[in-house]
Structure formats: structure tokens, C-alpha cells
Amino acid sequence: MFFSRISMALAAAMLLATVPSFVGAQNATITPYSGYRLGGTLTIRDGDLKLANAAFYGAQLDFRMRPDATAALLVDYQPTTLRLKEYGGPTEDLFDINVWYFQGGGTLEVMNPQSAAVPFVLGTIGMSWFDPGDNSQNAGSEYGFAGILGVGVKIPLQSGRMGLRLQTRLLLNSLYGGSSLWCGTGSGCYVGAGGYLAPVQFDFGGGITFGGR
Predict the structure, then answer these.
(1) Beta strands in the chain (DSSP E)
(2) Separation of CA 58 from chain center
(3) Which CATH number do you get for residue 6?
(4) Does the pLDDT value for residue 145 go beyond 70?
(5) Were 76 and a residue from 58, 66, 200, 212 both cysteine, which residue would form a disulfide, CB within 3.0 to 4.6 Å?
(6) CA distances (Å), 115 to each of 99, 167, 207, in order?
(7) How far apart are the C-alpha atoms of 111 and 167, rounded to whole Å?
């Protein structure tokens, strides 16, 4: 578990290390962003697992590929709480958990010469990482395939090298539970599961874009 966290941290660091050179290019932008995320329910044998609604943070690199399209890389982080609603029982907080998304994809813009605002659609694919951190009695991390679909608008600011980005997104996950989830050495497994699980999250937020256009 320790080495998996180190690997993820290195991957994020390598991506962020490319920021200075890419943002210096005319065809590249970086957008730090934040917002609020809802949803994330998994139906398991014991009841429903729920991710508490919470704020999220991230950064996206965009590379201009053509006048109306960009390629994109993003890293996204949400600190939240995993809860279990047992069938016929109360809702119990299990532990704090960090939800990460590592994604690649692109945006397609709807160009309108009569408007400074630029609507866009976003699509990415990659992986998600559900990490309990060090506060869950050594419960293990869970990984899965993930994809993000979104719509939004880019609004240029007066400087010409900055802009406001507003967006709303649907985040799709596929985790393989097998027989259990969040198992750790000496702690057993927190919940029983079975087969593939598909928690869906929804968020809305915005950020400031630097560089490019």
C-alpha cells in the first residue's frame, strides 16, 4: 500500500513538473480549478456505500490541437468520507478517504465569432484511485477505470492570457470488488462486495486559465 501511494504521488509530480514548459508555449494552458462534488454510491451486500458530498480540487493542462479543439491531461483530488448505510440500519461513517482521478482526453469548443464566451464539451478516460490514507486501520486502496464527461464555458479576461472556466461534469467509475473492498493487513475487510461496481459522481465548479487562449 505504501509503495502504491508513492507511485501515485510520483505520477502526479511528473505531470505537474511539465507545467512551466507547456504553459510557456503559445498553444498550451493550465487551469487550476475547484468546486463541489455530489454522489458516489455503491450497492454492496451489506447495504449502500456512500461518498459524502465535498469540495474537490484539480488542475488541467490543455494543448491546442486545432482552432476548436484541445488535448487535455488532468489530475483531480477530493477529500471526503466513506459511509455505510446498512439495510434496515443506521448510516455509519467508516473512514476518511481521498478520491483521485488521473485522466487524459480533450475538449471540443463551439466557436461563435459574435461572442467572447466559448462553450465546450469535455471527454476524458483514465483511472480513479480511492485511497483511505493512514486513518483507516491499514485498509487498502482501490483502483479502477474511470471516465469524465462535461460541459462548460470559457470566458476570456481582459489580459488575453487569462480566462475564467466554468464547468459541470459527470464522473464514471468501474471498480472490481470481487468479494470485498478496502482490505488491509491485520484489519480484515471493511465491506463485502461482488463483481464490478460503478459509483457515479457529479460536480460543478470553475477555475482560472493561464496561458494560450
Answers:
(1) 28-39, 41-44, 47-51, 54-66, 69-86, 91-109, 118-131, 142-156, 162-184, 188-197, 200-210
(2) 7
(3) 2.40.160.20
(4) yes
(5) 58
(6) 37, 18, 20
(7) 17
What's the CA gap between 180 and 189, in Å, rounded?
6
pLDDT per residue as tens digits for the range 181-198: 666 555 455 555 555 567
Using alpha carbons, select from 58, 39, 59, 57 the residue that is nearest to residue 49: 39
Distance CA 130, CA 118 (A): 33
- Grid cell for residue 75: 489530475
* Coil, helix or strand at residue 14: helix
Return the pLDDT at 213: 54
Query: Is 158 a residue whose pLDDT tops 90?
Result: no
Number of domains in the chain: 1
Measured in whole angstroms, the distance separating CA 105 from the mean position of its chain's CA atoms is 13
pTM value is 0.81
Q: What domain range is 28 assigned to? A: 2-210
Interatomic CA distance for residues 152 and 59, integer angstroms: 15
Q: Which cell is 108 given?
A: 471540443
- DSSP 8-class letter at 161: S
